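User: You have something folded?
Assistant:
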Amino acid sequence: MRRMITAIVNNSSGVLNRISGVLTRRQFNIDSISVGPTEKKGISRITIVVQIDSLYEIEQVTKQLNKQIDVIKVSDISDEPHLERELALVKLNAPAGIRAEILSVIEPFRGNIVDVGSKTVVVQVTGSSSKIDAFVDIVRPYGIKQMARTGTTGFTRSSK
């Protein structure tokens, strides 16, 4: 099952390596990992998406991650109301004759064309991983020249 883990950490050398090492030792493949600064100076948020089969395993991983040096707090937010976003840049084959068609295809995904070349366009799309996957499936027939995805980032929703 897909699990989203967030970790609040001190922004120091080696933290990401130690966190990924815990997951590697337990032989969990990381589907996505993103890191960035938070609103507090010197503090970063790491968002990790993994496939873990049991709640017992995720509990054990969370406990081990919380014990790591420079880790302030680790949470599995998968079952809590949360926000998650991913960014994708997709360069598509786009001869002049089909650009209007491409525009109509990307519009429902709220995609934006951020670069135009003589034979290609680059589309930016944000949303959940499943939205990005659906977008990629829809535009694949046009011919994807390049694609870059940021990985998922997220946190829990505000309580009422």
Notes: The chain has a mean pLDDT of 93. Residues 55-66 form the longest helix (12 residues).
